[in-house]
Amino acid sequence: MSKIGVIGAGKWGSALAFALGQENEVYITSRTPRDVENFVSLEEILKLEYLVIAIPAQQISSWLEDNFVFNNQKILVAAKGIEATTGRFLNDIYKPYVPDENIAFLSGPSFAAEVIKSLPTALVINSHNENLSAKFATFFPPFIKTYTSTDVMGAEVAGAYKNVIAIAAGICEGLGLGKNAAASLISRGLVEMQRFGYVYGAKEESFVGLSGAGDLFLTASSTMSRNFRVGLGIAQGKSQKEILKELGEVAEGIGTTYALNKIAKNKDLYLPIATEVYKMLEGEDPHISLKNFLSN
Ligand SMILES: NC(=O)C1=CN([C@@H]2O[C@H](COP(=O)(O)OP(=O)(O)OC[C@H]3O[C@@H](n4cnc5c(N)ncnc54)[C@H](OP(=O)(O)O)[C@@H]3O)[C@@H](O)[C@H]2O)C=CC1
Ligand SMILES: O=C(CO)COP(=O)(O)O
């Protein structure tokens, strides 16, 4: 039994606290205080050796700057996204605060709503430090099968990019374009994210496995996904503001789309689906954008 601190009591942080709490002593904290078991102050959590951080990618940089004090903690990053304003990956953002050997990244198909019901789930723990991944793997309960990998970039790219493809898939569904279109969009999305990942040295195995195909198939085919629901909202002609208000939770695909657009311009990369999603988030008519993309 280990002591683990979870930072961020949103959907994913709470589900992970529940899962990890099956066989460990788990404490949780969040920006907004909650009346939940083992809720403690941030100060208390930061004293623990093992931390899971479930703060979204768009907020983590300022959170680290304002709150984090490194004390040789071992960190498991649970967020999936690329910073919109800078195009930075999470491992870059954490770098000035946590050394490589102390950090791991969680990936794989895992709706919080199913984890909190103890439904069977498979996750990948990605770290350059294989001992650390192996250690984090021991914390999970039997209903979560864990795999480990050293392909941090692959896990990061896949986890972030699948959210963008999920938005596109939601638009496709919302426009009633059919299952043929959805399947072609998802498979081309997988190729697009893999090609993008190679630019950063990501490995093929992450894209064909749980972190890539697994998470993409889950998110891009279900209304349980917030990003998929963002796509449905776009297809209905709703504004980004309206969609986010209705959602009431984070949809990392939006910020990641802006990040990808920035990176594509800087590095002159061809990211066709991400580019169409960007245009639609910026107000282009989805009937034109997605239909054009799917036809000759
Ligand atoms: N939900 C899911 O099924 C999964 C989510 N993820 C990823 O996990 C991450 C978190 O998602 P999820 O928990 O679902 O999102 P939620 O919207 O449910 O929760 C967001 C969390 O982030 C915290 N937060 C937001 N802004 C700030 C800030 N400026 N400073 C500090 N804390 C902040 C919130 O704190 P508070 O509420 O206390 O204000 C809350 O704990 C995302 O990257 C998501 O992609 C990954 C796998 C599965
Ligand atoms: O990452 C997730 C499942 O693996 C959650 O996806 P959404 O954020 O789209 O709900």
Automatic annotation (TrEMBL):
<feature type="binding site">
    <location>
        <position position="108"/>
    </location>
    <ligand>
        <name>sn-glycerol 3-phosphate</name>
    </ligand>
</feature>
<dbReference type="InterPro" id="IPR006109">
    <property type="entry name" value="G3P_DH_NAD-dep_C"/>
</dbReference>
<keyword id="KW-0520">NAD</keyword>
<dbReference type="GO" id="GO:0005975">
    <property type="term" value="P:carbohydrate metabolic process"/>
</dbReference>
<feature type="binding site">
    <location>
        <position position="112"/>
    </location>
    <ligand>
        <name>NAD(+)</name>
    </ligand>
</feature>
<feature type="binding site">
    <location>
        <position position="80"/>
    </location>
    <ligand>
        <name>sn-glycerol 3-phosphate</name>
    </ligand>
</feature>
<feature type="binding site">
    <location>
        <position position="225"/>
    </location>
    <ligand>
        <name>sn-glycerol 3-phosphate</name>
    </ligand>
</feature>
<dbReference type="GO" id="GO:0008654">
    <property type="term" value="P:phospholipid biosynthetic process"/>
</dbReference>
<comment type="pathway">
    <text>Membrane lipid metabolism; glycerophospholipid metabolism.</text>
</comment>
<keyword id="KW-0963">Cytoplasm</keyword>
<dbReference type="Pfam" id="PF07479">
    <property type="entry name" value="NAD_Gly3P_dh_C"/>
</dbReference>
<dbReference type="Pfam" id="PF01210">
    <property type="entry name" value="NAD_Gly3P_dh_N"/>
</dbReference>
<feature type="binding site">
    <location>
        <position position="250"/>
    </location>
    <ligand>
        <name>NADPH</name>
    </ligand>
</feature>
<dbReference type="GO" id="GO:0005829">
    <property type="term" value="C:cytosol"/>
</dbReference>
<feature type="binding site">
    <location>
        <begin position="226"/>
        <end position="227"/>
    </location>
    <ligand>
        <name>substrate</name>
    </ligand>
</feature>
<protein>
    <recommendedName>
        <fullName>Glycerol-3-phosphate dehydrogenase [NAD(P)+]</fullName>
        <ecNumber>1.1.1.94</ecNumber>
    </recommendedName>
</protein>
<dbReference type="GO" id="GO:0046167">
    <property type="term" value="P:glycerol-3-phosphate biosynthetic process"/>
</dbReference>
<keyword id="KW-0560">Oxidoreductase</keyword>
<feature type="binding site">
    <location>
        <position position="12"/>
    </location>
    <ligand>
        <name>NADPH</name>
    </ligand>
</feature>
<feature type="binding site">
    <location>
        <position position="215"/>
    </location>
    <ligand>
        <name>sn-glycerol 3-phosphate</name>
    </ligand>
</feature>
<dbReference type="InterPro" id="IPR036291">
    <property type="entry name" value="NAD(P)-bd_dom_sf"/>
</dbReference>
<keyword id="KW-0594">Phospholipid biosynthesis</keyword>
<feature type="binding site">
    <location>
        <position position="110"/>
    </location>
    <ligand>
        <name>sn-glycerol 3-phosphate</name>
    </ligand>
</feature>
<keyword id="KW-0444">Lipid biosynthesis</keyword>
<feature type="binding site">
    <location>
        <position position="252"/>
    </location>
    <ligand>
        <name>NADPH</name>
    </ligand>
</feature>
<dbReference type="GO" id="GO:0141152">
    <property type="term" value="F:glycerol-3-phosphate dehydrogenase (NAD+) activity"/>
</dbReference>
<feature type="binding site">
    <location>
        <position position="226"/>
    </location>
    <ligand>
        <name>NAD(+)</name>
    </ligand>
</feature>
<feature type="binding site">
    <location>
        <position position="80"/>
    </location>
    <ligand>
        <name>substrate</name>
    </ligand>
</feature>
<comment type="similarity">
    <text>Belongs to the NAD-dependent glycerol-3-phosphate dehydrogenase family.</text>
</comment>
<dbReference type="InterPro" id="IPR011128">
    <property type="entry name" value="G3P_DH_NAD-dep_N"/>
</dbReference>
<feature type="binding site">
    <location>
        <position position="31"/>
    </location>
    <ligand>
        <name>NADPH</name>
    </ligand>
</feature>
<feature type="binding site">
    <location>
        <position position="227"/>
    </location>
    <ligand>
        <name>sn-glycerol 3-phosphate</name>
    </ligand>
</feature>
<feature type="binding site">
    <location>
        <position position="112"/>
    </location>
    <ligand>
        <name>NADPH</name>
    </ligand>
</feature>
<dbReference type="InterPro" id="IPR008927">
    <property type="entry name" value="6-PGluconate_DH-like_C_sf"/>
</dbReference>
<dbReference type="GO" id="GO:0141153">
    <property type="term" value="F:glycerol-3-phosphate dehydrogenase (NADP+) activity"/>
</dbReference>
<feature type="binding site">
    <location>
        <position position="226"/>
    </location>
    <ligand>
        <name>sn-glycerol 3-phosphate</name>
    </ligand>
</feature>
<dbReference type="GO" id="GO:0046168">
    <property type="term" value="P:glycerol-3-phosphate catabolic process"/>
</dbReference>
<keyword id="KW-0547">Nucleotide-binding</keyword>
<feature type="domain" description="Glycerol-3-phosphate dehydrogenase NAD-dependent N-terminal">
    <location>
        <begin position="23"/>
        <end position="132"/>
    </location>
</feature>
<keyword id="KW-0521">NADP</keyword>
<feature type="binding site">
    <location>
        <begin position="8"/>
        <end position="13"/>
    </location>
    <ligand>
        <name>NAD(+)</name>
    </ligand>
</feature>
<feature type="binding site">
    <location>
        <position position="226"/>
    </location>
    <ligand>
        <name>NADPH</name>
    </ligand>
</feature>
